[in-house]
Amino acid sequence: MARGKLILIEGLDRTGKSTQTEKLVKSLGDNALLVKFPERSTQIGGLIDQYLTNPEFLLPDQAIHLLFSANRWEIAESMKRSLLKGQHVVMDRYVYSGVAYSAAKDTKGMDLNWCLQPDKGLLKPDLTLFLTNSDSELRQGFGEERYECTDFQDKVRGQFAAIFDTLEDPDYKSKHIKFLDTTHKTIEEVHQLVRAVTSDYIQGHADVNEFIYF
Ligand code: Z5A
Ligand code: MG
């Protein structure tokens, strides 16, 4: 049986990632599973949730970085089992967020390469849809959690660009990463784009069964 595809929706804060992952999973039907990172319901996820929502819950930058990565590792095996059963797995954020947000802190020694190391060996997405837009701060909710402020988001934007320009393998990038500009598009218009790119990818790679790894 053909394995399912690992599909990632990434992007800057409030660009509609959660909205679009939910709609994509629904449109793929029973054969798709949604996985959101951070997965806040696990023990490690509980610590991450406290860190993000409680300004008095302090952790060294290295420690919270490793917790975000550990949160991916604790779900890695069950994701792989689902893929092997033929289910598509659609992720809301993943390794690229992990690297970009931590590297944006400018903490001594925590450069892009350092940040990527704990995720080495995780499954790499078959398809990443990276959402960009220039009006996201107008949307409801910006500013409620740690990291949700314009200055820091500008740094995160720079780190995402550096990941895709310098860290990621150019051959992988050209085949497996698509950038979608959502500026001034409605939720439904973005969904149609996301759906079209995903369907094309799934149809074009139906017989590819080997996994790719970070
Ligand atoms: N983080 C990290 O540091 N390290 C890691 O390894 C990982 C994450 C995995 C929490 O993530 C924080 O964790 C995050 C990165 C860090 N910090 N920041 N910033 P999260 O994923 O849980 O964050 P969130 O609360 O879900 O926010 P978000 O993901 O940034 O938002 P979103 O999912 O992109 O947007 P949305 O919830 O789908 O939409 C936001 C609003 O806009 C909502 O009211 C929608 O109805 C509206 N919306 C969406 N699309 C549109 C369009 N097209 N038009 C108009 N309005 C729209
Ligand atoms: Mg979200």
Automatic annotation (TrEMBL):
Q: Which Pfam families does the UniProt record give?
A: Thymidylate_kin (PF02223)
Name the enzyme group at the top EC level.
transferase
What GO terms are given for molecular function? ATP binding; dTMP kinase activity; nucleoside diphosphate kinase activity
Q: Name one GO cellular component term.
A: cytosol
Any one biological process term the GO annotation gives: dTDP biosynthetic process
Q: Which PROSITE patterns match?
A: THYMIDYLATE_KINASE
* Pathway membership: Pyrimidine metabolism; dTTP biosynthesis
Q: In this protein, which residues make up the domain named Thymidylate kinase-like?
A: 9-193
**InterPro entries, per database record:** P-loop_NTPase, Thymidylate_kin-like_dom, Thymidylate_kin_CS, Thymidylate_kinase
User: What's in the keyword line of the UniProt record?
Assistant: ATP-binding, Kinase, Nucleotide biosynthesis, Nucleotide-binding, Transferase
Name the Enzyme Commission number(s) assigned to this protein: 2.7.4.9
Similarity annotation: Belongs to the thymidylate kinase family.
Q: Which HAMAP family match?
A: Thymidylate_kinase (MF_00165)
UniProt protein name = Thymidylate kinase
